[in-house]
Amino acid sequence: MQSKVKINNKKKIFNDPVYGFISIPKEVIFDVIEHPYFQRLRRIKQLGLTHNVYPGALHTRFHHVLGAMHLMTKAVQTIRRKGHEITDKEEEAVLLAILLHDIGHGPFSHALEYDIVSGVSHEEISRFFIERLSEELEGELDLALEVFKGTYPKKFLHQLVSSQLDMDRMDYLNRDSFYTGVSEGVIGSDRIIEMLNVVDGNLVLEEKGIYSIEKFIVARRLMYWQVYLHKTVVATEYMLIHVLRRAKELSTNGHDLFASPALNFFLKNNITKEDFISNKNVLEQFARLDDYDILGAVKVWMDYPDRVLSELSKRIINRDLFKIKISKEPFDLKDVEAIRVRVMQDFDLSENEVKYFVYSDKLSNSAYTEHKENINLMMKDGSTVDVSKASDNLNISALSNPVEKYFVCYPVTRSKKAKQLTFKHQ
User: Fold this and answer.
1) Domain range spanning residue 154?
2) Is residue 195 a contact partner of residue 79, using CB atoms and an 8 Å limit?
3) Residue 253 falls inside a structural domain
4) Among 168, 178, 394, 397, which one is least packed by beta carbons within 10 Å?
5) Could you give the CA distance from residue 141 to residue 151 in angstroms, rounded to a whole number?
6) Are 419 and 387 contacting, i.e. CB atoms less than 8 angstroms apart?
């Protein structure tokens, strides 16, 4: 009689368009990927509404975290090869930490962080998810949680997950570049990972990797202005923020809006960090939210009697977006007020309603921050120096200074689209 061989069917592979085949290196990682909390990431786009500008930007956070985990396996191999100990349990922990670093993102996350939840970041929600998963898996994620929070003694493990040289950035720059078609974002992630090392417990880059890291920093700056903070993307995101803000205002005032049970929960309740801590149901409700909840509601809200909610919803669904002007200098307050008055007249809006149609704010882009877990180069003599000081590229030092731009965003009636407003600056 033939003996049956137990097949370990947890050793799956994914075919990734950026890296090729990605394998699942640990059984517990398979268990986490199979969990409904994690599968939700398939239903959350990595770049939110950016597909309104770059039609190919439809990849998900599921894609991204698998890619970041793949790069983490390479980083662990590199650091081990250079004589630094990473135990099997530590490897498992750092892989789980990077796999779960974005699990706290909601649909259109940065838009939701304004109003759907109050005063709680996606990083904190990720921590709540990791804690809950570790409870379910009888403590198997406790070490990963320490690495994620940065409390584990080997600081370089946390720095691989969250720093200015982490595997998160290594993946999203290449991935977002791939799906948007913006080639300026392509970086030499393999070269950078090959140059990683550890000095005094901290992650560093060997000196010969300096040109790769210069390109990495420049690519990040370009991707922010060309993709993440592209003016049309900003306009669309602010429109969605105000749709949700109006929906929440109406819901809390007793209006019965169409919404999925999970979305309805967050529209009717002012959820804070303390609620996540004290009430387990809050995290469960959040785990049921994805892009479909928001877009499904916005489609229905197009026909809601409230003219503010319906007008904004129609414009988002039909891509009839607001005009946006960007400037290096703040806009004159008188000019912004003139826009408000004109929009009120053109659309017959009240003082309370016009705030949902005219937005003025500031954008900030910092490609590299010297004082925040800076990127250190390991020189040939073993000393370390900040990359901005070691680089012979004067741009790197300049890129450490944040660039701020200002915008004003407002609707233009179809009959007046040809008219141009002129602006003065303060």
Assistant:
1) 13-100+141-229+367-401
2) no
3) no
4) 394
5) 14
6) no
Q: Answer yes or no: are the C-beta atoms of 173 and 223 closer than 8 Å.
A: yes
| Percentage with pLDDT > 90 across the chain | 80
Residues 6 or more apart whose CB falls under 8 angstroms from that of 398 comprise none
Angle of CA points 140, 83, 389, to nearest 5° = 100
Q: Give the Cα separation of 276 and 186 in Å (integer).
A: 38
Backbone angles phi, psi at 179, to 5 degrees: -80, -25
* Encoded tokens for 424: 């003065």
What one-character-per-residue DSSP string does 151-162 give?
-SS-HHHHHHHS
361-388 burial, b for 16+ CB within 10 Å, e for fewer?
Answer: eebebbbbebeebbbbbbeeeeebebbb
Domain count, the chain: 1
The answer as to whether 198 is a domain residue is yes
Residues contacting residue 338 through CB under 8 Å, at least 6 positions apart: 421
Query: How many other CB atoms are there within 10 angstroms of residue 305's CB atom?
Result: 7
CATH value at residue 82: 1.10.3210.10
pLDDT score recorded for residue 118: 86
Specify the DSSP element, H or E, that contains 43. Answer: none
Please give the share of the chain, as a percent, with pLDDT higher than 70. Answer: 92
Is residue 301 in some structural domain?
no
CA-to-CA separations, 258 to 209, 240, 279, 295, 299, in angstroms, rounded? 54, 16, 25, 12, 10
| CB contact burial 191-225 (16+ within 10 A = b; e otherwise) | ebbbbbbbeeeebbbebebbebbbbbbbbbbbbbb
- Tell me, yes or no, whether 256 lies in a domain: no
Question: Two tokens at 281?
Answer: 């149901």
DSSP code for 195: T
pLDDT digits (tens, 9 = 90+) for 124-162: 999 999 999 999 999 999 999 999 999 999 999 999 999
